Automatic annotation (TrEMBL):
Residues 21-34 have a biased composition (Basic and acidic residues). This is Probable E3 ubiquitin-protein ligase HECTD2. It comes from Ovis ammon polii. InterPro entries: E3A/B/C-like (IPR044611), HECT_dom (IPR000569), Hect_E3_ubiquitin_ligase (IPR035983). It holds the Pfam family HECT. Residues 437-776 form the HECT domain. Keywords: Phosphoprotein, Transferase, Ubl conjugation pathway. Its EC number is 2.3.2.26.
Length: 776
């Protein structure tokens, strides 16, 4: 089963023993009993319609043993005789499920016999009350006649208990449906019932919530049945939980779902992946909103005190982890991974979360870092930057203490990683400097070009990165191969005696992340996946690094033609051995010489056949992306991690590492306009108005060229356009001149063109022909 086929456990630093939040050691405590409730007739609150506000504030008071079976039976006859108990101290009620068995890892791999839930005989199920067609007809009749009794009875019966709920929506009431690939639920029927629910009278909506409360309050003996899992699966889709007045009920549902055993989570993750995007996305948004409003409630009085419901957010986060796993089980995912980001977390103390995670891992202290998929890339950048700053300060302070202890005069330069390089020997000088100053890599970077005056206020550092990257990635240099079909670079497989320059590139990438510099590098996504394999450098030097599972999709991002050819081989319907006449061998040209490599022992004598072609393709891809470049990539890996050795890397996805290094491809020129600074111009000047009219009307490719011309990269930093510190300066020259860019300072020097047409013409010429002279 693939790596994606796992429910991600909360991420834990390797040195911390990981146990789930709230896990109880020793004998589990007995379930607390809810206090007896004295029922009192209460007028129904304003109810639960589309736009109601807090109508079920009194409804949260129904979290108790309301209306036993007898009362439910009596009330079936009429929707007008509902009696709601009045509980003033509902917020003080104990949690429903105290026997929470939070697992440190919820795996969806094939389950061992130890953790498989015992197969129980399926109980005798209630008779399926209605078909979807019957239900929809009843709803239409109720709308036209105003008599909702039949619809009321359906909802009352269906949501009365878990067995009733499962039976109502099963495709076949007599079938067991015990497989992970089919929940057995009629999804269209569930959707129809929930879509109709929000448009029914409020007593029906309250009846549904009352039934859910009764179901959640049932005493559970033994493992959950598959019908119980189906009930949780259905209830989590209930749109009523969008309303804050239902959050007390929703929280208990989340807690019970989060406390299910590993085997049950395995089923739920696979069932959720079958939902449509339209139905899946609201589940995620509902949970994110639940967490946000618990952290920053608009009306704090709506919720119990945080001390009494500290388990709300951990439970919601664990259910979100189930949905995240479900999303990763399908390709392409149901929703982008960024849809799991909770931007509310950008406003909490992230470093406290990070330090809690570092200190306690997944033990009894909850931290959002245990569930990094909810933390936005902007928030992760803050964590990495502050962690980097703390490491920089710590190392600089130690250098200062060492100097003073030896009775030497402190020098401010010792607080920085000072690079002195010659332009004519840029690569060799940079390599020598970084090798000699390996202990200073985590200090703030300052660059000096030998023979040139000037202080590095950031511009020289950026210029050093730009020049070095251009030189190293030039095809003549031979370290990387540029693939025109995919517009990216990949590691050259040529063997050499010294791989130190690959280490230099890794250090450069690490320094860029460490010093918040965006690099104009084009590596495929596979590179960043390998860079996090593993995210923390192994203590054992013999442990392979930079090796990850690769597929034809990974190869397609680098060599699309070859990937297409291998896909054709896999789908070929003829005789592979006779028609292709291939063996388990790969041929590569190295300095004009064709060399052969066996993909497996004796591969030159093993023909590729219809039976073994999958193995051949997998070995071929693994050879190209892992084995043939192992030494090159290992040097690159160690270089990067020599700078960015931090547990914060465990929070990142490969795509997020790429954004941190290279920036985001999403351009927002309106945001750039709002944040632009001016020197010699005012934003109301005619030339500036012409400029923005032209730029905002550019197609995307010209907008990218403008960004590349002025900043050295066509990508945007994680913080957005505002982080570019883009400046337009007045160039007091002839209007016959083209614009000039100072890429080291993200500055555009613009002559005062007299017409929009002239400005547009000169600007397009400048940004389209800048290669080779656009850098100053």
């Amino acid at each position: 089963m693939s790596e994606a086929d796992r429910v991600p456990s909360p991420a834990a630093p390797p040195a911390v023993a990981a146990t789930a939040p709230e896990e109880k050691k020793g004998k589990e405590p007995e379930r607390e009993k809810l206090p007896p409730i004295v029922s009192a007739g209460a007028s129904a609150p304003a109810g639960l319609d589309r736009g109601f506000k807090g109508q079920i504030s009194a409804f949260s008071s129904v979290i108790s043993t309301v209306n036993q079976k007898k009362e439910a039976t009596e009330n079936r006859s009429s929707p007008t005789h509902l009696v709601f108990p009045n509980i003033k101290n509902v917020r003080d009620l104990p949690p429903i499920s105290l026997d929470v068995r939070q697992k440190q890892r919820i795996s969806t791999d094939p389950l061992s016999s130890e953790i498989k839930a015992p197969v129980l005989p399926e109980p005798i199920l209630p008779v399926q009350p209605k078909t979807m067609k019957d239900f929809l007809e009843d709803v239409e009749k109720a709308k036209s006649s105003g008599d909702w009794k039949t619809v009321y009875d359906f909802y009352l019966t269906t949501f009365d208990s878990f067995p009733e709920l499962s039976a109502a929506f099963k495709k076949d009431a007599s079938a067991s449906f015990n497989t992970i690939e089919d929940s057995g639920i009629n999804a269209k029927f569930v959707n129809a019932v929930y879509d109709a629910l929000l448009n029914t009278p409020q007593d029906i909506q309250k009846t549904v919530l009352k039934g859910i409360i009764n179901s959640l309050l049932q005493e559970w003996k033994g493992p959950r049945t598959k019908d119980d899992l189906r009930a949780y699966f259905i209830l989590l889709q209930n749109p009523q939980f969008n309303n804050t007045s239902t959050y007390v009920i929703y929280a208990h549902l989340l807690r019970q779902t989060a406390s299910l055993v590993e085997a049950d989570h395995h089923f739920l993750a696979h069932w959720f992946k079958k939902l449509s995007q339209k139905r899946f996305k609201p589940l995620v948004e509902r949970l994110l909103q639940f967490i946000s409003l618990r952290l920053f409630p608009a009306k704090p009085e709506e919720f119990p005190p945080i001390s009494k419901c500290s388990w709300w957010i951990p439970s919601a986060s664990k259910v979100l982890a189930l949905l995240n796993t479900a999303n990763n089980l399908v390709h392409p995912p149901l929703i982008p991974y960024t849809d799991f980001y909770n931007s509310t977390l950008d406003h909490i103390d992230l470093m406290e979360e990070y330090h809690t995670w570092q200190s306690f891992g997944n033990s009894h202290r909850f931290s959002f870092c245990q569930y990094p998929f909810v933390i936005s890339i902007a928030a992760k950048k803050i964590i990495i930057q502050r962690d980097s700053e703390q490491q920089m300060i710590s190392i600089a302070r130690q250098s200062l203490v060492d100097k003073v202890s030896r009775r030497q005069r402190p020098d401010m330069n010792m607080l920085f990683l000072n690079m002195k390089v010659r332009r004519t020997h840029l690569v060799s000088d940079s390599l020598d400097e970084l090798t000699r100053k390996r202990a200073d890599l985590k200090k703030k970077l300052k660059v000096t070009f030998v023979g040139e005056a000037g202080l590095d206020m950031g511009g020289l550092t950026k210029e050093w990165f730009l020049l070095l990257i251009r030189q190293i990635f030039h095809p003549d240099y031979g370290m990387f191969t540029y693939h025109k079909d995919s517009y990216c670079h990949w590691f050259s497989s040529f063997k050499c005696d010294n791989y130190s320059e690959f280490r230099l590139v890794g250090i450069l990438m690490g320094l860029a992340v460490y010093n918040s510099i965006t690099l104009d590098i084009r590596f495929p996504p596979c590179c960043y996946k390998k860079l996090l394999s593993p995210p923390i450098v192994p203590s054992d030097q013999n442990t392979p690094v930079g090796i990850c599972s690769v597929t034809t999709d990974d190869l397609c991002q680098i060599m699309p033609e070859l990937a297409h050819g291998l896909s054709e081989l896999l789908s070929y319907e003829g005789n592979v051995e006779e028609d292709f006449y291939s063996t388990f061998q790969v041929f590569q040209e190295e300095f004009g010489i064709i060399k052969s490599y066996n993909l497996k022992p004796g591969g030159d004598k093993i023909p590729v056949t219809n039976q073994n072609r999958k193995e051949y393709v997998q070995l071929y891809i693994d050879f190209l992306l892992n084995k043939s470049i192992y030494k090159q990539f290992a040097a690159f890996y160690y270089g990067f991690h020599s700078v960015c050795a931090s547990n914060a890397l465990m929070l990142l996805r490969p795509e997020e590492v790429e954004i941190l290094v290279c920036g985001s491809p999403e351009l927002d020129m309106h945001a750039l306009q709002r944040s632009t600074q001016y020197d010699g111009y005012a934003k109301t000047d005619l030339t500036i108005r012409y400029f923005w009219d032209v730029v905002l009307g550019f197609p995307l490719d010209l907008q990218k060229k403008l960004l590349h011309f002025t900043t050295g990269s066509d990508r945007v930093p994680v913080g957005g356009m505002a982080d570019l510190n883009f400046k337009i300066s007045k160039n007091e020259t002839s209007t016959n001149w083209l614009p000039v860019a100072h890429t080291c300072f993200n500055q555009l020097c613009l002559p005062p063109y007299k017409s929009k047409k002239d400005l547009k013409q000169k600007l397009i010429i400048g940004i389209s022909n800048s290669e080779g002279f656009g850098l100053e």
